[in-house]
């Protein structure tokens, strides 16, 4: 096998799990993260288990940073075969307090209370940049090395909210819809040069990003957490390990004729009408 996989956001909850699973299948892993320490921790775990990996501090929003990372990866592991665009997330400034606007909300005099009219475009921009530009730019930097080789692919991380927006998070929903759309665009664009482009669309996974939205400090479900479980036919949150099967399949030869898809991994959430 020995293909080189570059993973951005690799110090995070979901992508560290994918990195370890790919390393167990003998892929060589380059872990890129803004938080270099987090990437190093994952890299050490991979090495202890006998895998090959390196950790690199890199910012998916800075081309020079990614180009620097690319030359380190090339030198230490070889040119990139597979890119997983895992860095992403939401921002509180792009989030409303309530799911629905009520007439009386406009009378509330509290800076912490945010309706649509209070959303800060800096927060919205942050979310669009991180999720969309943070997927497009690493693809630009790393896919160049894939041209002319075989078995190369890109795996983006979209989300449930790309299909139907989730309440309260218009920026994140729009940005992930853009990631799914870009996945199709790039799949078509790269179809003649042998680079497949696909995405995972995870449902709800309890991670640091959403823990306070979905659970209370006593570990109980919030109202939003309860609603999600009620709307998920399989009746639970996803575990990071639930993403491994689809990732191995999309990165491997078994999916050679698959490009331009986003796979929902959601316990049936997207299939359920609620009744
Ligand atoms: P996480 O916050 O645990 O990991 C994200 C990682 O990205 C962090 O290690 C962070 O340091 C890194 N990062 C942030 N900005 C960066 C930048 N500019 N450059 C490089 N690295 C940067 O998040 P997670 O829950 O593991 O999510 C991983 C991906 O899955 C994200 O794209 C997220 O939007 C998506 N996703 C998560 C869920 C969920 O329920 N957790 C659901 C659907 C999609």
The shape is: globular
- Strand order within the widest sheet? 3-2-1-4-5-6-7
Query: N-to-C terminal Cα separation, in Å?
Result: 46 Å
The ligands found in this model are: nicotinamide-adenine-dinucleotide
Considering DSSP H and I runs of 4 or more, what fraction of the residues is helical? 25-40%
Give the structural class. Answer: alpha/beta
Number of helices: 8
Would you tell me which CATH topology applies? Answer: Rossmann fold
Q: Which sequence of SSEs, written as H and E, runs from N to C?
A: EHEHEHEHEHEHHHE
Unreliable residue runs: none
Full CATH superfamily name: NAD(P)-binding Rossmann-like Domain
How many discrete domains? Answer: 1
Query: What percentage of amino acids are in beta strands?
Result: 5-15%
The whole-angstrom Rg is 19 Å
What is the residue-mean pLDDT, rounded to a whole number?
96
Name of the CATH first level: Alpha Beta
Number of strands: 7
Largest sheet data: 7 strands, parallel
Assigned CATH architecture: 3-Layer(aba) Sandwich
Task: Please render the helix and strand layout as text.
Layout: E1 4-8, H1 13-24, E2 28-33, H2 36-48, E3 53-57, H3 63-76, E4 82-85, H4 121-143, E5 152-157, H5 170-189, E6 195-202, H6 211-214, H7 223-231, H8 244-251, E7 262-265
Parallel strand pairs: 1-2, 1-4, 2-3, 4-5, 5-6, 6-7
């Amino acid at each position: 096998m020995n293909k080189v996989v570059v993973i951005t956001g690799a110090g995070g909850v979901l992508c560290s799990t994918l990195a370890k699973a790919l390393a167990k299948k003998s892929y060589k892993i380059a872990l890129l993260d803004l938080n270099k320490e987090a990437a190093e921790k994952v890299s050490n775990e991979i090495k202890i288990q006998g895998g090959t990996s390196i950790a690199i501090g890199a910012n998916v929003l800075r081309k020079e940073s990614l180009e620097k990372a690319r030359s380190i990866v090339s030198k230490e592991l070889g040119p990139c075969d597979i890119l997983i665009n895992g860095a992403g997330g939401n921002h509180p400034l792009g989030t409303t307090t309530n799911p629905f606007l009520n007439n009386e909300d406009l009378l509330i005099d509290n800076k912490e209370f945010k309706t649509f009219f209070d959303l800060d475009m800096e927060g919205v921009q942050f979310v669009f940049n991180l999720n969309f530009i943070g997927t497009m730019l690493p693809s630009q930097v790393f896919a160049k090395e894939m041209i002319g080789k075989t078995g190369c692919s890109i795996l983006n991380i979209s989300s449930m909210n790309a299909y139907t927006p989730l309440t309260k998070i218009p920026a994140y929903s729009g940005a992930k819809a853009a990631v799914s759309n870009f996945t199709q665009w790039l799949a078509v664009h790269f179809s003649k040069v042998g680079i497949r482009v696909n995405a995972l669309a995870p449902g709800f996974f309890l991670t640091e990003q959403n823990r306070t939205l979905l659970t209370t400090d006593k570990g109980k479900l919030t109202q939003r957490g309860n609603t999600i479980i009620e709307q998920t036919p399989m009746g639970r949150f996803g575990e990071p390990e639930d993403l491994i099967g689809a990732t191995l399949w999309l990165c491997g030869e078994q999916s050679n004729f698959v490009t331009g898809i986003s796979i929902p991994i959601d316990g049936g959430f997207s299939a359920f009408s609620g009744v």
